[in-house]
Specification:
- It is built from 13 helices and 24 strands.
- It is α/β, with parallel strands linked by helices.
- The strands form 5 sheets. Strands 3-4-9-10-11-12-13-15 form an 8-stranded parallel beta barrel. A 7-stranded antiparallel sheet has the order 2-16-18-19-24-21-22, with helices on one face.
- Helix 5 links the parallel strand 10 and strand 11.
- The radius of gyration is 28 Å and the shape is globular.
Amino acid sequence: MKIFQVNLNSIINKFSTIIFILGAFFVMEAQVNLSTNFVDSSHRKQPVYNVWQVANDISPKYEGDDDGPQIRPDLKMNIIRLSGGIKVANNTKQENYDMVHWSEVANDYVYDFSRLMHVIDKADEHRDQIYQLVVDNVPWCFQRCYTFVDLDKNSYDGVHFRKFEEVEQYGNALPPCNLDEYGAYVMAFMQTLVDNYGMERVKTWRFRVGSEIESPGHWKGTAEDFVAYFDVSMRAIREIVPDAHVGIHTREPHYVAVSAKGLNYKGEQFLSFHNEIIEHCYTNNLHINSWGLSYYIQFDKAGEFSTNGKWYDERVAPLVNHPKWNHETEINIEEFKATSSFRSPDGRFATLKAVSTHGEVAHIAMSNLFYKHPKMNQIHRWLQYKDVEDDVANKELLAMVGKTRYESIVNGTPNNPSDLIDAIFVLDDKTNTYEALIYNYNDQSTDYGSNQSAKISFIVDFPVGSKVKYRNAYYSKPHNKLQCFKSEPYFKESFYIDGTNEGQKFGEASRILKPEIYDNKYVKYNGHKKYAFGDWKYITTKPRSDGAKKGSEITIDTNLDSFSFRKFEFRITEI
């Protein structure tokens, strides 16, 4: 019995040792190391800029109750569907908004740009700074010479547009029936701008042709039709303003419309036009200044919330790697929204903004993706109205604008293999201070996994033993008002509007909670943690872990929950 006990104890001790070693090994392997080198110039990149300075707005009326600022005062406005060609709710043509009409009496086109000037003058009055004018929908009168045939969506004659295509989801989705006449209209449009606002000012505005032009709701023509339309539009714009910035807005290069949308009038499926556009511009020496894409992050749809290299490889690389791509063309996301769902609880096609930590951290990850790929410039957001403020994450990004970014190096494996942990390191050259914004995102699952240990380290140009003070602020699920409200013991499923599904539960509280719950409980709720920096702490720099002699190293052990971020600030106090 005693021998057995000794052997058993020995086995237990050995087993415990093995478990301890394995545990230590896995902890070591699981730790993610985020580092950079502020001494090595190869790590030094461009200063951080504001990725989020443009707001989208459907051509504003500036009338009645809407006669006031349309967007936040700190943003610039991208005006969409300015030229007309829109529809009203009962799917009929709204011709009053068009700036050109066909006159049977005059047997000619009659221009009326009073609405164009009204929009711009009102924007000036209310200090809505114009960034871009989008000449997308074609005015209705340019359908006048079409003969529409009565065929269904899966039938076509290869020549005529079908009756159901006359008025589409976003209004007029047809190319002009006479391109020369349309080109004359665009020149008149541009000349009106120059005559009223001066060449120097008009040159500061961008112009975009088209909106998501391969989408059937925006364009019912072929790729060939669009290339001809784009060519005429670009030449007309630059005929009046030779230095005009002219862009385009397409779907992603791998885009193929779902079969339910049917075929175009020639029996072709709707898909990306990017090859045809790039080839045409190269052959005809036409320079596109900016190429816009769309991205609606959908947290209720698997695989639709990527923010990393995979997103870039699928959506941007096929453009910039095309052998005939003009490398002076910048890339923008010209429609963006982090959404919990594309539908509201009542079933309407009305996207819900994701107000959970998922959406906030997605903004950091998208910014970092843009910083890593300098050809990308701006992200145009929806719903940036005059009374809207940036979320906490975007405020921290803005606090880093103008400071020099240093490339991050990520080593190690997270406990949750699909976690995407990274950092934005910056140096303020004026004050010689350092910052690190680290975050944990996941593009595979919206679930909150285990807390992830992490280490940040960076090399500075100070001798070993220099004294450093630092502090940090943390944002995670307990800091999010909606998520904390939903975690309270008294919260009931009956608080949601009837029909709210799981994905929609990340959406805006005012649109997913019953009105009486929102007004009487949520608005008054204050149970979430407040985001704030902690007290300053002190450390000393250590010898560089790579053995090099120049400078010293700062190392901090920390952690990150799923869909969280942590902002560090460092100040050298004594050398």
